[in-house]
């Protein structure tokens, strides 16, 4: 599942882990935007369906959304 999510988010979700704990699924990682989080959840549900697995009763998101940082050292962000 993590490989499918990583591919679908094009590497924009870092430190990705998926844990299934009974009826609960925990999706963890670091994302640059909430849109990336939405893509990850959609991919998780699609992957479960493709594998003929039941959808979890609960999906816990433990994904921290971090703003994009300046690309090079010394660069400043616009104000």
Walk me through what this model shows.
The chain has a 3-stranded mixed sheet, covered by helices on one side. The mean pLDDT is 84. With 79 residues, the protein is an alpha+beta fold. The protein has 2 helices and 3 strands, in the order H-E-E-H-E. The protein has helices at 2-8, 34-50; strands spanning 13-21, 24-31, 58-65. It is globular, with a radius of gyration of 15 Å. The protein has a single domain (2-65), classed as Alpha-Beta Plaits (2-Layer Sandwich).
Helix content bin: 25-40%
Query: What fraction of residues sit in β-strands?
Result: 25-35%
Question: Taking strands numbered 1, 2, ... along the chain, how are they ordered across the largest sheet?
Answer: 1-2-3
What is the CATH-assigned architecture? 2-Layer Sandwich
Low-pLDDT residue spans: none
N-to-C SSE series?
HEEHE
Rounded average pLDDT: 84
Oligomer: single chain
Kindly report how far apart the N and C termini lie: 39 Å
Shape verdict: globular
| Number of DSSP E strands | 3
Structural class label: alpha+beta
- Count the helices. How many? 2
Count of folded domains: 1
Please write the CATH class name: Alpha Beta
Largest sheet, strands/sense/barrel: 3 strands, mixed
- CATH topology (level 3) name: Alpha-Beta Plaits
């Amino acid at each position: 599942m993590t490989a499918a999510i990583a591919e679908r988010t094009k590497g924009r979700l870092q430190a990705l882990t998926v844990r299934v704990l009974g009826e609960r699924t925990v999706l963890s990682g670091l994302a640059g935007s909430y849109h990336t989080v939405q893509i990850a959840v959609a991919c998780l549900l699609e992957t479960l369906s493709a594998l003929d697995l039941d959808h979890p009763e609960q999906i816990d998101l433990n994904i921290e959304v971090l703003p994009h940082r300046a690309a090079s050292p010394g660069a400043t962000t616009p104000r």
